[in-house]
Design brief:
disordered N terminus; disordered C terminus; single chain; mainly alpha
Length: 101
């Protein structure tokens, strides 16, 4: 049973949900919470398509590829907005991947 708990505690979907709940408890606005949630959903889909289900499986290479994917998928301006947000202390994706370490 402990192995299942550990595996679930590193699940990206679970961690993202916990992160969003923390934002709500910290009284982040609904639009900010929704924005983080949408970003994490997109990241989660990208990572799971690579066969990764646990945050500990996500590599720096995955993050770099995701950033490139944003530039290719969105306008450069939109991608820069996503990427520049990652450099701050409130970086949702970097925080999610580091929560399980």
């Amino acid at each position: 049973m402990e192995e299942t708990k550990d595996r679930n505690s590193n699940d990206i979907t679970v961690l993202a949900g916990e992160f969003i709940e923390n934002l709500r408890m910290l009284k982040y606005s609904g639009s900010s919470t929704k924005s983080y949630s949408n970003s994490l959903d997109h990241f989660n889909h990208f990572i799971k398509a690579r066969g990764r289900n646990s945050a500990v499986e996500v590599t720096a290479h995955d993050i770099a590829d995701y950033r490139l994917n944003l530039v290719e998928r969105d306008s450069s301006r939109t991608a820069c907005t996503y990427i520049s947000g990652w450099s701050g202390s409130s970086s949702s994706i970097c925080m999610i991947t580091s929560m399980s370490l």
